Each structure stands twice: as C-alpha cells, then as structure tokens.
From TrEMBL:
<dbReference type="InterPro" id="IPR051099">
    <property type="entry name" value="AGR/TXD"/>
</dbReference>
<keyword id="KW-0964">Secreted</keyword>
<dbReference type="Pfam" id="PF13899">
    <property type="entry name" value="Thioredoxin_7"/>
</dbReference>
<feature type="signal peptide">
    <location>
        <begin position="1"/>
        <end position="21"/>
    </location>
</feature>
<keyword id="KW-0256">Endoplasmic reticulum</keyword>
<dbReference type="GO" id="GO:0005576">
    <property type="term" value="C:extracellular region"/>
</dbReference>
<keyword id="KW-0732">Signal</keyword>
<dbReference type="GO" id="GO:0002162">
    <property type="term" value="F:dystroglycan binding"/>
</dbReference>
<dbReference type="GO" id="GO:0005783">
    <property type="term" value="C:endoplasmic reticulum"/>
</dbReference>
<protein>
    <submittedName>
        <fullName>AGR2 protein</fullName>
    </submittedName>
</protein>
<dbReference type="InterPro" id="IPR036249">
    <property type="entry name" value="Thioredoxin-like_sf"/>
</dbReference>
<comment type="similarity">
    <text>Belongs to the AGR family.</text>
</comment>
Length: 173
C-alpha cells in the first residue's frame, strides 16, 4: 500500500507542474511589452499587488479563519464586459487599497456552489461572502435582472458595496 500512495502523489505533482507550465507559456507569448511587469498569476490582472486565493475552498477557509469578508469576481478572459470592468477595477486606487481588507478570489469558471449564482451564471459578477460563509445577497449592483453585475460606470457603486461588506461585518461580530 505504501508504494501505491507514493506513485499517486508523484502523478499529482506531475499534473500540477504541467498545468502551471502550460499557463506560463501562454502568458509570455501574448505580453510582448518591454517594461517589466509583475507576473500575472492569480490576480489575472485585477490587481497584481493584491493577494489572491487560488481556489474557492481556500478562499472560504481563509475568510472563516481570518474573519475577513470574501469578494469573488466571476469573469471571462474573452468577455469584453469583464475586460472593461477589470481595467477600471485595477486602475481604481481606492478600490485596490480597500481590497486589501478582503480575502480575494477571481474565477474564470463556475463553481458547483449554487449560492454563487443566486440569479444565474453571467459575467462579470461580483459577490461578497461574510466570515460566517453566508453569501451577501443584499449587496447588489444596479440591475434588477443581473443583481451582481457591474459595468465600468458602476465602479463607485462597487466601491461603496465593498465598504458596506466591511461595515456590516463590524456590527455583526
């Protein structure tokens, strides 16, 4: 039995490194700018200075144990709305500063957790989850048909929603 487990562990490591290598290769070919940029790893461009979690499970764990709210951004690389929101989000100094108070996760795929799609699976959508691991369905954007969608012009609303997620947290704990 001992031998078998070491083999599976080795296979897992190989799989992980292949996936990483594939990803790194893709990024290099696209980014031909000469100025040195920080490697765009988990941030995917939403804030390269910020600390991003890798998986939804890790994000939930960190939110619970750090007692910080979690902000999840669902987006897609080939969606112009996602790209537009990402640009203003990354360039908004106050948002980037405030984001340090959150556990952060951006996803280019859907999780199996239905709570993260209260009104459907669309991008971009931003959801807040408090440390008790409750999705804050009360913190919404401007649109009644897509409650958690934000456009670049809604960036100040997103900022105030981030403040709201932090404020309510203090009163409840």
């Amino acid at each position: 039995a001992m031998e078998k487990s070491s083999v599976t562990m080795f296979l897992l490591l190989v799989a992980i490194s292949c996936a990483l290598a594939k990803d790194a290769g893709k990024k290099d070919s696209k980014d031909t700018t000469t100025k040195p940029k920080l490697p765009q790893t988990l941030s995917r461009g939403w804030g390269d200075q910020l600390i991003w979690t890798q998986t939804y499970e890790e994000a939930l764990f960190r939110a619970k144990h750090s007692q910080k709210p979690l902000m999840i951004i669902h987006h897609l690389e080939d969606c112009p709305h996602s790209q537009a929101l990402k640009k203003v989000f990354a360039e908004h100094k106050d948002i980037q500063k405030l984001a340090e108070k959150f556990i952060l996760l951006n996803l280019v795929y859907e999780t199996t957790d239905k709570n993260l799609a209260p009104d459907g699976q669309y991008v971009p959508r931003v959801l807040f989850i408090d440390p008790s691991l409750t999705v804050r369905a009360d913190i919404t954007g401007r649109y009644s048909n897509r409650l958690y969608a934000y456009e670049p012009s809604d960036i100040s609303l997103l900022y105030s929603n981030m403040q709201k997620a932090l404020k309510l947290l203090k009163t409840e704990l």
